Amino acid sequence: MYRIRIRVSFTFPACHKHAGAQHHGAGCGSRVRPRSSRVLPVTPNPPHDAAESSPESSQPSPGRKAPRPKVPTDLKVLVVAAFVIAAGYGVVAPVLPQFATSFGVGATAAGAVMSAFALMRVAWAPVAGPIMSRVGERRTYLMGLAVVALSSAATAFAPSYILLVILRGLGGIGSVMFTVSAMGLIARLAPPSIRAKVSGYYATSFMLGSIMGPVIGSLTAAWGLRAPFVIYALALVFAIAVAAWKLRPVEARTDTGSVLLPMTFSQAWSIGSYRSLLLASFAHGWANLGARVAIIPLFATAIATASGAPASGFGSGASVAGIALGVFAGGSALSQILFGGLSDRYGRRPFLVTGLVVAAILTGVLGGAGHAWSLWALCLLAGLSTGLYTPSMQATLTDIVGSKRSGGNVMSAYQACADVGQIIAPIVLGAVIDDVGFAPAFGISGGLLALAGVVLFLTPRASFPQKD
């Protein structure tokens, strides 16, 4: 350490007649202090830690971009768990109708088993939100996974049709609990500057799991109709173990340490972008979760039959439908990986509006496909456009709630809109197909997406919250 001597001197201006009265005694009679010196210690090179912890050193230098934050470990756990959950469900979904008919019931009753799961998701959504606000996102997530795991394991040993319906309903309750709480965890744990990117990773992981699930299920088909439910339960147990180990609890606190009350639905409803987002969620659930899964297989079978394709093997209705759904999912996953984080840099609104409008056009013309190759090409493009807006939808929702507090009711309402669209679409569009054909059915789905895009375009830019 060196010592440096600093010389300090004081000078005063010349005195005027009335200066003494104006300066409260510091006038002509005041004594001028002589020159003085003091010794100050100087550290030549500050310690490395001190330099890094100083506010100035934490700011990016001019001309250099601030480094983008990394994805936290907790969110990586959610992404992995999403793949495991979706893959497990993909193992169960193809055999569930056949398992239901094994109890001696018809196709309508078998469809009721599928509906029980979806209906309980919608019915329990208003309850899942308050549960999350009360016990926290992490506990709700683990509780939801546990409910689905137990109901799936019990389904493997269900002795009757009635019990099967009840257990699938319980699975729907657990499903909405872990879905809404996962959204809450992303909102609370994702750095604001990469929210859309993280949302894209999560959605892509879930979609890839949905693609791999049926493949795994086909390999286990020889084990019987009950084995997939055991596999699904074991996959969920693995997800629970990893999440319980790695996910850390979060609290709704501000930077000053004060506790924030959860955001209420009425508070969110007063924000224009949230109201527009609910319509977009309904349209997305209708077109991409309901219509896509229920109508594209029927349309693919009609195309294959009209072209004289074989009843089985490549070119059959089942294979055309499977490839169509696969390329749609693949296109969406690729788009979310490539473009998911762009709205973190350039804003949510452009990607919401552009993605919805492009998806609307491609969905609307899908009913005009005349052969398998054109159907696959349109499904691929529609998937790419869907992946353009879905991460921005999730990121906009988390921007509204923020990372400092919980928003269980706000997020459960958003999810419920998608679930309602998913449930209603197959019923309404099925009736449309019976009366006037496939093209109007796809046109209706495209129209809903276009309406959502237009509403978001007309939503004032100022109603989109800034990332906190």
Description:
- There is one protein chain.
- The chain is an all-alpha fold and 468 residues long.
- It folds into 3 domains: 2-45, no CATH class; 70-250, Growth Hormone, Chain: A; 258-468, Up-down Bundle (Growth Hormone, Chain: A), CATH 1.20.1250.
- The chain has 18 helices and 2 strands.
- The chain has helices spanning 19-22, 48-53, 55-58, 73-92, 96-101, 107-135, 137-155, 161-189, 195-219, 227-246, 265-269, 272-306, 317-339, 342-346, 348-365, 372-401, 408-436, 438-458; strands at 2-8, 36-42.
- The chain has a two-stranded antiparallel ribbon.
- The longest helix is centred in the middle third of the chain and has 35 residues, at 272-306.
- It is globular and about 60 Å long.
Quick description:
The protein has 468 residues and is mostly helical.
Topology, pairings included?
Layout: E1 2-8, H1 19-22, E2 36-42, H2 48-53, H3 55-58, H4 73-92, H5 96-101, H6 107-135, H7 137-155, H8 161-189, H9 195-219, H10 227-246, H11 265-269, H12 272-306, H13 317-339, H14 342-346, H15 348-365, H16 372-401, H17 408-436, H18 438-458
Antiparallel strand pairs: 1-2
